[in-house]
Amino acid sequence: MSVAEYLKSFVLEVSDVDEADISDAASFEALGLDSLAFVEMRIGIAKKFGVKIDPALFESGEIATLGQTTAYVERLVRAAAATEMPKAS
Questions:
Q1: Over the stretch 46-66, which tens digit does the pLDDT of each residue have?
Q2: CB–CB of 57/76 below 8 Å?
Q3: Of 17, 35, 47, 63, which cross-links 57 as Cys (Cβ 3.0–4.6 Å)?
Q4: Is 3 exposed, middle or buried (0-12, 13-18, 19+ CB in 10 A)?
């Protein structure tokens, strides 16, 4: 499951928004996500993708849409993969 797919399924699970209303440009506010949903989303991302999002990014508005969240998580995942040491054979 991609980051975008995960976030879309998360929004569908925790909000009353229609699937057709979910887009990269959709703000968390427009999707009806509250602070508890942000916490749940951060926990889910950490479990699913092994990366942590600083909550200050949401609080400051630096990350305010699904597209911004997707791009940020994808960058974290790539960075984590690039720094992993290859295992000896």
A1: 999 999 999 899 888 899 999
A2: no
A3: 63
A4: buried
